[in-house]
Amino acid sequence: MTTLIDARNARAARHPEKQKREDTPVLRKPDWIRVKAPAGGVFSETRNVVKENNLVTVCEEAGCPNIGECWSQKHATFMILGDTCTRACSFCNVKTGLPNALDADEPKRVGEATATMGLKHVVITSVDRDDLPDGGAEHFAEVIREIRKAAPGTTIEILTPDFLRKPGAAEIVIDAKPDVFNHNLETVPRLYLSIRPGARYYHSLRLLERVKERDPAQFTKSGIMVGLGETKEEVMQVMDDMRSAGIDFLTIGQYLQPTRKHAAIDRYVTPDEFKGYETIARAKGFLMVSATPLTRSSYHAGEDFEKLRAAREAALAAGRQV
């Protein structure tokens, strides 16, 4: 009983705004969703580097199912701007509340950890920081600069907030010239009010379009979750919207419910359906598509970046506009 009480208290501390909600039903996971528990020497090495540098990872904070595989290969996604988000999306397991002040030394520590781990490709994400005048944009830029300084051969992928109502913030990050600018649309427009109430679908779409307008060389990337009640037609419309905004790389993964206070899973989408989405997306012109039940924004990001770059080169060689 103590364990149950402690677990409930821990959830309440992370998501106080959700505690008055009714518990949502939990569906039994199909075999294709099950993953191995994290273990092994390399996994421990990765964890030690993260802890020694006093860093936060979205792998831990969001309860990513791929942490065992990724950390065992020395892949980790660093989460900057603290561990507390100013929004309360119904799908997300990151802690919500009033964040602490920015850690001015964090960019340097991220750069040093990237170098220590010998990462060829690093992914940087963050919580939403609506409390900051620029939404944390300058901090993102400083992290990019510190990684370039400490690990000049490393390619950098960022997964940013939407910088809603922060004029000029996106441009600060774009001008820092990451190799990949990622911002997730997360779901179809119809579900925004219940799943992503603090965001605006067309604002997010426009953010990615502005990246291409300002720096066409930057790759753009976005992802959605399925299994929340969306229809196939709605997913296909999102694909079309993304292509109209010039997005290069699409990820599609299964939504997994963090707790019974979070949005319920409508259904588990089958592997065959994911293959169908991948086929459709490639036909619509995306340079790169990752669509599997366990796909997440940074899953296999390094390998996928190499494929993405090769796809652009092949398209240009064939005379196709990208």
Automatic annotation (TrEMBL):
It catalyses: [[Fe-S] cluster scaffold protein carrying a second [4Fe-4S](2+) cluster] + N(6)-octanoyl-L-lysyl-[protein] + 2 oxidized [2Fe-2S]-[ferredoxin] + 2 S-adenosyl-L-methionine + 4 H(+) = [[Fe-S] cluster scaffold protein] + N(6)-[(R)-dihydrolipoyl]-L-lysyl-[protein] + 4 Fe(3+) + 2 hydrogen sulfide + 2 5'-deoxyadenosine + 2 L-methionine + 2 reduced [2Fe-2S]-[ferredoxin]. GO terms for cellular component: cytoplasm. Its cofactor is [4Fe-4S] cluster. [4Fe-4S] cluster 2 binds at C85, C89, C92. It is found in: Cytoplasm. Residues 1-24 are annotated as: Disordered. The keyword Repeat does not apply. [4Fe-4S] cluster 1 binds at C59, C64, C70, S298. SUPFAM superfamilies: Radical SAM enzymes. It is an enzyme of class 2 (transferase). One of its GO terms (biological process) is protein lipoylation. Binds 2 [4Fe-4S] clusters per subunit. One cluster is coordinated with 3 cysteines and an exchangeable S-adenosyl-L-methionine. Pathway: Protein modification; protein lipoylation via endogenous pathway; protein N(6)-(lipoyl)lysine from octanoyl-[acyl-carrier-protein]: step 2/2. Its EC number is 2.8.1.8. It comes from the Bacteria. Belongs to the radical SAM superfamily. Lipoyl synthase family. This is Lipoyl synthase. It comes from Marinicauda pacifica. The lineage of its organism: Bacteria, Pseudomonadati, Pseudomonadota, Alphaproteobacteria, Maricaulales. The gene is lipA.
